[in-house]
Amino acid sequence: MRKKIVAGNWKMNTTVPEGVELAKAVCEKAAAVPENIGLIVATPFTHLASVGSVLTGRVELSAQNCADHTSGAYTGEISVAMLKSTGCKWTILGHSERRQYYGETDEKLVEKTKLALEAGLGVILCVGENLEEREAGKHFDVCTAQIKNVLYNFTAEDMKNIIVAYEPVWAIGTGKTATSAQAEEIHACIRKVLADKFGAQVAEDTTILYGGSCKPSNAKELFAQPDIDGGLIGGAALKADDFIQIAMSY
Ligand code: PEP
């Protein structure tokens, strides 16, 4: 049975003390969330060690990116070994903001995913179409290509440590959520693309999250869809109450 997960992407928000307080509040409130729902917080790099030290085992720590090299002369970059040493269990990769503003390509994502998995980090791989692509009816093709370009370089065994997040770019931080039907049809398509390469069982076992203006008021309907296994939450993850309420929306 695939795991249901609610992950918070804090993006470039909060100072370290604010992040530590937020993490403590999330952990306190997490007691109310059913055990079968996994909780993850993805903090800025600077917060990982401090937030990691206050997280209970109930909430796991994630980064939002990692370097595409293991070590050396890459000023400003953070390696997978560095992430691991903070207690990090996951890293988000391929978030649309990184694809859009920092030139993250599928080729780079293959390298980063390889390094993360080798280091024992799980990967939350984001895919999703932008508004222009949606309006041109290319959303299935775009998501299929992103999945194939990155994940088809990996094995069924690797897929045990990979979560996919479908995040339509036009729904991120805009207040415009995909309808549950729009999200479900892409999730089902992603699962089919995974099944074509890795077989039905691996596809069945892969957690596929929805992200894009997910909030307490719409989470229930989204999470009720058969192929939506939880959420990657941006803005609403910055309020412990909202984040936990979303996690309790199953
Ligand atoms: C995100 O950036 O991953 C995200 C889903 O953001 P928001 O929830 O704010 O749309």
Provide the descriptors you would attach to this structure in a database record.
single chain, 250 residues, alpha/beta, 8 strands, globular, binds phosphoenolpyruvate
Description:
The protein has 250 residues and is α/β, with parallel strands linked by helices. The protein has eleven helices and eight strands. The protein has helices at residues 16-29, 48-54, 80-85, 96-101, 106-118, 131-135, 139-151, 180-198, 200-205, 216-223, 240-247; strands spanning 4-9, 37-42, 59-63, 90-93, 122-127, 162-166, 208-210, 230-233. Strands 7-6-5-4-3-2-1-8 form an eight-stranded parallel β-sheet. α5 (106-118) packs across α7 and α10 (216-223) runs parallel beside α11 (240-247). The longest helix is centred in the C-terminal third of the chain and has 19 residues, at 180-198. It is globular. The model has no long low-confidence stretch (mean pLDDT 97). The chain binds phosphoenolpyruvate. Phosphoenolpyruvate is lined by residues 9, 167, 172-173, 211-214, 232-236.
In short:
With 250 residues, this protein is an alpha/beta fold. 42% of the residues lie in helices and 16% in strands.
